[in-house]
Amino acid sequence: MFATAKAHKNLHKLRFYAQHTFHRLIPGAFLQRQRKTLLRELKRFPDNEQQKILYRVNYCNQLDSRIELPEQAISLSSFKREKSGTYYLDLLSVLRYFPPELRFCHRFGDVTTVPDVPTLVKSRPINDHNQNSVLLKLNRVRHYYTVKDPHRYDEKLDLVVWRGSCHQEHRRQFIRDFYDHPLCNVGDIHKNALGQPWHKHFMSVPEQLKYKFVLSIEGKDVATNLKWIMASNSLCFMRRPRFETWFMEGALQPGYHYVLLKDDYSDLEDKINYYRENPCEAKAIISNANRYVDQFMNAEKERLIGLLIMQKYFERTHQFFSD
Cα separation of 245 and 126, whole Å? Predict the structure, then answer.
C-alpha cells in the first residue's frame, strides 16, 4: 500500500514538472498573442458559468481601487527563479501571457499577514481587510494532490483519523488531548515526538481514506489535506479556517461543506457520535464537498481565472497596456 501510494504521488509530481517544462518551451510572444483569445473564452460559457468564474476572480483579487506599485516591484523580464521553485514555476506560467515590462509584487511561502501593497500570494488571512493579498494557484503540486477514493462511505471505519507534524502549539495541544481517545486514530509523525505516546507512524492518503471521518487541522496557514478530504467519500471535520488560498476556504459553509468543530475540539466526540448515528446527513455534506472541489478540476477554467485575476491586477495597479 505504501509503495503504491508513493508511486502515485511521484507520478503526480512528474506530471507537474513535465507540464511546466512543456509550457516554458512555448515562446512568450505566442502566449501573449494567445491571451486575448483565451480571455474571450469567458463569453462562450453560459451566463451562470460566467458569473461563477467572475465570482472566483473577484474573490481572489479584491482590489477595488487603483493603486501605484512601489519602486521595488519587479517586472517579468527580471523575475528570476527563487528557492521556492514550485511557486516560481506556477507564477511564471501565468505571467508569461502578459507583456514582460509589466510589474508586480509577490511573496512566496505560507503568508499569514496582509502586505502593505498589492501582492501575489498563495495564502492570506480571512478577514475584511485582505485586499492587498491577491491569491493565485501557487505550489499546486503540494496543495492540489487528490486520490480516487475506492471506498464507499458505509464501508469505512467509524473513527476519525489524522496524521501530521505538530510544529504549532494548537496542533500539539490537540494531539495531547486526543492521541488515546477510543474514537480517534491521530498522531504526530515528526521525529521530535519520538518516545512520546502521541507519536504515530506515517499514514498515506489511501490508508486514511479507510476512515469515515478525516480531520483537517491548519498548520502555519492552511491545511494541506483539506482538498483531498473534500474530494473523497470521507467526511471533513475542522475548526473554522483562519486562512485561505485559491481554494477559497473562507467561502466554505459549516454544516454544508464540512463539520464545524469548536476551536478547542471539545465537541469532537459529540460530532463523531452524531454523524455515526446520522449517515444520511454525513453523505449529504460529502456530496456538497465533492461538488465544491469539482470547480477546481477543469484545467481550462483554472487558466482562464488565473489570467483574469492578473489582468485585473495590472489594471488596478495603473498598468494599462495594449498589444
Answer: 9
